[in-house]
Amino acid sequence: MTDQSMNILDHLDELRKRVMVVLAAFIIFFIASFVFVTNIYDWFVKDLDMTLTVLGPLDIVYVYFLLAGVIALGLSIPVLIWQIWLFVKPALTKREQRLTIIYIPASLFLFIAGLSFGYFIVLPLVLNFLTGLGSDMFTMMFTTDKYFQFVLRMTIPFSILFEMPLVVMFLTSLGIVTPKGMQKNRKYAFFVIVVISVLISPPDFISDVLVIIPLLFLYEVSIILSSIIFRRKLKKEQENENTEV
């Protein structure tokens, strides 16, 4: 067996170990979440003015597994990020290790901030608008599975969108994105952000503004962070050129 083949096998073995750690963490969190699933359920529906319904016995099991799975997945994300970093760490220089490890707490913070924004701001706005829209025409009765699917759709996208600054920083470090390019295409980016915000928020001015402003702010923050990374990247390249000379 060649050295290259042995290296590949070593990497695959290391990857398998990291995957097993993440799966073990997910299973542990899933079991813990399942034990306390009724408490989790009560917390999610405490602000509802109605009792959720189920259409069959299997719907109860589905909701239990859905809640436990989502909570376990959310709790496993820090473990996943940490294991990914440990996997790529040997290929990084000391300086790159110090820089990339900063991304771990930052990504978690932005993920939680996105979830909180979606759950505490966007979800009530959209839910109140939709229930008010049909209150005079229909008898409101939400099934449990449909309600929690709705909650996920109103929260998960924002947890992803809030990762924009970190993604921009990473792409800038690779040379794919530049702050000048982001500034030049700002109007197109703003247009896309406004369209997305209008589509996912209720059709009233206040709701649109509450969704648009944070996303525009994130874009501006992304430009600032991209500028910092870009200047550091240029400085490092100049230092390397001077060293070679």
UniProtKB/TrEMBL annotation:
Q: Which UniProt keywords apply?
A: Cell membrane, Membrane, Protein transport, Translocation, Transmembrane, Transmembrane helix, Transport
Gene Ontology process terms (BP): intracellular protein transmembrane transport; protein transport by the Tat complex
**Keyword Protein biosynthesis (UniProt):** no
The GO terms this record gives for MF are: proton motive force dependent protein transmembrane transporter activity
Q: How does it sit in the membrane?
A: Multi-pass membrane protein
Instruction: Tell me the first and last residues of the signal peptide.
Output: none
Q: Name one GO cellular component term.
A: TAT protein transport complex
Query: What is the predominant subcellular site recorded for this chain?
Result: membrane
Question: Where do transmembrane segments lie in this chain?
Answer: 21-41, 61-88, 100-130, 150-176, 188-206, 212-230
NCBIfam families linked: tatC
Per its UniProt record, what PANTHER family does this chain match? SEC-INDEPENDENT PROTEIN TRANSLOCASE PROTEIN TATC (PTHR30371), SEC-INDEPENDENT PROTEIN TRANSLOCASE PROTEIN TATCD (PTHR30371:SF4)
What is the role of the protein in this entry?
Part of the twin-arginine translocation (Tat) system that transports large folded proteins containing a characteristic twin-arginine motif in their signal peptide across membranes.
Sequence similarity: Belongs to the TatC family.
Name this protein carries in UniProt: Sec-independent protein translocase protein TatC
Q: What is the lineage of its organism?
A: Bacteria, Bacillati, Bacillota, Bacilli, Bacillales
Designated gene of the protein = tatC
